[in-house]
Amino acid sequence: TQAASPVFSSKDKVEQTPRSQQDPAGPGLPTQSDRLAHHQEDDVDLEALVNDMNASLESLYSACSMQSDTVPLLQNGQHARSQPRASGPRSVQPQVSPRQRVQRSQPVHILAVRRLQEEDQQFRTSSLPAIPNPFPELCGPGSPPVLTPGSLPPSQAAAKQDVKVFSEDGTSKVVEILADMTARDLCQLLVYKSHCVDDNSWTLVEHHPHLGLERCLEDHELVVQVESTMASESKFLFRKNYAKYEFFKNPMNFFPEQMVTWCQQSNGSQSQLLQNFLNSSSCPEIQGFLHVKELGKKSWKKLYVCLRRSGLYCSTKGTSKEPRHLQLLADLEDSNIFSLIAGRKQYSAPTDHGLCIKPNKVRNEAKELRLLCAEDEQTRTCWMTAFRLLKYGMLLYQNYRIPQQRKALLSPFSTPVRSVSENSLVAMDFSGQTGRVIENPAEAQSAALEEGHAWRKRSTRMNILGSQSPLHPSTLSTVIHRTQHWFHGRISREESHRIIKQQGLVDGLFLLRDSQSNPKAFVLTLCHHQKIKNFQILPCEDDGQTFFSLDDGNTKFSDLIQLVDFYQLNKGVLPCKLKHHCIRVAL
């Protein structure tokens, strides 16, 4: 019977190895048994070193220690395949060469230590208690109210992009925006950065100078998506547009009766008119004559055109709208409608009221633009408004309602900055104990004359007593208006008309400028019923003091600020009250 060999520790084995034993393979080539012994002894020493360092946490690493006994680590940091232990007595380990003593003092492989440190961190994390969820009511029925490591979403940085926006005076600002930012959000950001009054009339304009086109972005459109369809010469403008949603307030002024037809009976009311446009199942139609430019040619033809939900069509036979006589001019789905900036000069348009349907894929090719021209501004506004309503429908109404709902929610908690353009100003009589609204026009005009005389007496009294200003009162009255936003200095009549058209042809939109014919006079440019009118403000003298008047001296004002304040309250000789003023903001 073979005697069982005693079991020694690895240290005892090394001590009992004869020192005089020679390596049969020679001094330079170790045998296979030597190499295995090297691996096993290195692993055992490394485990002992780690156990000594983590003696205080020995209870947490019992499983790890058992695994390291059965699955030793090799020099490359990988686990060796586990060998099944024999049920019988263990055999004696092969004898180890003396050079193993030198290898025991060699540096430990860093890769194996790093692997142990990673496992150590894993065990530390798993041994920590679970973090209770501070908001258990937000958990679903299937999810536990405890935050597990995999329950938190990975943090991903939102995509950002720089957008350059220009103002009317040529200044610009580079703004960093998110990829999902809408035109309304960017306008509110620019209003905040420019310290403007947010009256929900600011808009972002897509401007193409090389094509002579521009349009106002809808509030829901994504800025980054629109910029991807623009050429390098194109840019964004930050501008006022009071007429953006004016058709919701008074649609009858935007859609003349002779231009609108319906497939079903309509009672002709304003609410019914808008419902027919917003309802996708209805079939409204805009019809009329337009000048149409032929593709690839310079000639224009006057054709009978109709706009439907399916697209823009022209009739090849008079005013016939039979399907065999209708020819598709443009599609509404992948296109946007623009207004022509200089149609006469750039495209030889017959009038100044041009519009264009531009496909989104077109960037620099003017030959693929569908150019149209209307007879007057009201007709062009009708076509462009109908195009927006038929394309976007309820989205436009939601864009119109969102600022009003937000204002209603914030009104009990905050008092917004008062803006004349947001309020309906009326003539008031405060002669009694309580104020009352003057509804009689004759009485309002009489009150205006009395107020004008009171201002004149007050100004005369101030002139007699002396002014605290370093400037003389007469000098101050001639320059104080230059600090106001509604005064635009020395601009031409054509430029003033262009500014009013850009900021919306709504009743009461105005600006003041220097007169070109009289260097001492000024001009009030006012919009009424989508028509622009000019009123000259002449200086007049009374008792050696200079006044300004619109009605040949019947109502006099010491400066232009008093004149504007008065006509914001009273119509007087004007066709309507002053309501909105044209403004230019430097970014």
Mean pLDDT: 75
Q: Which architecture of the domain at 246-409 does the CATH hierarchy give at level 2?
A: Roll
Low-pLDDT stretches: 1-30, 35-44, 60-94, 98-103, 413-423, 463-474
End-to-end CA span: 103 Å
Structural class: alpha+beta
Largest sheet: 13 strands, mixed
CATH overall fold name of the domain at 246-409: PH-domain like
CATH superfamily of the domain at 246-409: Pleckstrin-homology domain (PH domain)/Phosphotyrosine-binding domain (PTB)
* Rg, Cα atoms, Å: 42 Å
Strand content: 15-25%
Percent of residues in helical segments? 25-40%
> Class of the domain at 246-409, according to the CATH hierarchy?
Mainly Beta
| Coarse shape | globular
Tally of individual helices:
16
Number of strands: 23
Features:
single chain, 587 residues, alpha+beta, Ubiquitin-like (UB roll), PH-domain like, 13-stranded mixed beta sheet, 6-stranded mixed beta sheet, globular, cytoplasm, Growth factor receptor bound protein 10, RA_dom
Question: How does this structure look, described?
Answer:
- With 587 residues, this protein is an alpha+beta fold.
- Among the domains are: 160-240, Roll (Ubiquitin-like (UB roll)); 246-409, PH-domain like, CATH 2.30.29.30; 480-581, 2-Layer Sandwich (SHC Adaptor Protein), CATH 3.30.505.10.
- The protein contains 16 helices and 23 strands.
- Strands 3, 4, 5, 6, 7, 8, 9, 10, 11, 12, 13, 14 and 15 form a 13-stranded mixed β-sheet that branches. A six-stranded mixed β-sheet has the order 22-21-20-19-18-23. A two-stranded antiparallel sheet has the order 1-2.
- The longest helix has 25 residues, at 441-465.
- Mean pLDDT is 75; it is low at 1-30, 35-44, 60-94, 98-103, 413-423 and 463-474.
